[in-house]
Amino acid sequence: MSFEQMWRDLAPVGRSAASGGYFRQPFGSAERECQAWFLEQCAARDLDVRTDGNGNTVAWWHPHPAAFSIVHEDRVAGSADQGSDLRGLSVEGGVVTGSHLDSVLDGGAYDGPLGVVSALAAVDLLRERGIRPGRPIGVATFAEEEGSRFGLACLGSRLLTGATTPEQARELRDRDGVPLLDAMAGAGVEPDLGRSSLLDGIDCFVELHVEQGRDLVHRDAPVGVASEIWPHGRYRFDFTGEANHAGSTRMEDRHDPMLTYATTVLTANEQARVLGQRATFGRVEAVPNGTNAVPSRVTAWLDARAETDAALADLVAGIDRLARERADRDGTGLAVTAESVSGAVGFAPDLAERIVAGRDWPVIPTQAGHDAGVLSAAGIPSAMLFVRNPTGVSHSPAESAGVEDCLAGVEALADVLAGLAR
Question: Would the pTM count as exceeding 0.85?
Fold first, then answer.
């Protein structure tokens, strides 16, 4: 099946008729439909599907028929389209590609799924070329990469590598209070959190992703290679005050946490601009959330990113300090909790050099987090390919990539996989 046909088949799943954006929340119906589609594609290619109890999947193309048949003798009843769990078996020296199938709320079509569809198309292209790899090639899907439901980005790969412990994951709840384990079980995933043997088969990892920015546009290049990921974190700001009547309470008598929050938003924007970094308050919740009431509590989440670990620490510390100064003036309280912090990740330079050797592909940094960064931090040599995004817009229905550029990405990924799997 062609890249274009696979893309057309997947495109309607989880799409909002109103906005055109996607709502593919982890372990929700739309994301599960995407995962079922992926398993069907794997079965059609006779790939060896393995899952773990974190919601991750790797589908292997084994180079040697004998090894492939031995694995299939030990399958549980059924086939790849049932998500066979073969955690007890070992795959060594594998080259893995892929990405994720979940989305941010009202997100774009390309962030995540482009890497999965391109990986399947790259396997098809290698087979069309008559290439038999010298070691296994895997196509992976990782769970809850966006962190849009349970608040922790790259949750599947973090659990896989041990960056997040099972104890930490068990405490996670979505906005409706549903525990992670309940959501997984409800989606038909038997929870078994923590480091899994899927990791043991990954010798190196290459993730293809739509670029989240316009660097490749400015360079007039359809494909690029990542050099590093900026450090980034998510921080919860709990502003507390005193609930009161919106009409009868004089302005000077108020202890309004919304005022402190609003000033903090402006402070974060100013600090990020002055320092040349990134700071965004993208989510806020108010209690009691009434139009005619001064709130008693405002909870907001800061996404902060910077070029270095020290710059990130300075940025957040500056926002925290100025927010507390404002809280003192407003007679409100403030507590700041770091919900997740990821340090700077530099991708394996020798792997990047090998990938770009003899090719006119620019090497660029990315300010967005990815599963490739989590695997790299865990000691798995990793790299990323980017496909040009003409608008540079991401995490939005306006996210896009041209068909010709997508096909160029597939060809680039196939070339990379062929070279690494010799």
Answer: no
